[in-house]
Amino acid sequence: MSIGGTLADARRQAGLTVTQVSQQTRIRESIIRDIEQGDFTACGGDFYARGHIRSIAGVVGADPTPLISEYDADHGPVGSMRAADVFEPSRPIKIRERRSPGLGMIVVVVLLAIIGFAAYRLVSSHDHSGKPAAAATTPPARPSAHPTTAAKPSATASPTPSDVVINVAAGQEPCWVLLTRASDGSQIYMGDVLAGTSMTWTERAAVSLRLGNPAAIILTVDGQRHPINTVFPVTLNFSPGASPSSSASTSTSTSTSTSTSASG
Question: What's the chain look like in SS3?
Answer without folding.
Answer: CCHHHHHHHHHHHCCCCHHHHHHHHCCCHHHHHHHHCCCCHHHCCHHHHHHHHHHHHHHHCCCHHHHHHHHHHHHCCHHHCCHHHHHCCCCCCCCCCCCCCCHHHHHHHHHHHHHHHHHHHHHHCECCCCCECCCCCCCCCCCCCCCCCCCCCCCCCCCCCCCEEEEEEECCCCEEEEEEECCCCCEEEEEEECCCCEEEEEECCCEEEEECCHHHEEEEECCEECCCCCCCCEEEEECCCCCHHHHCEEEECCCCCCCCCCCC
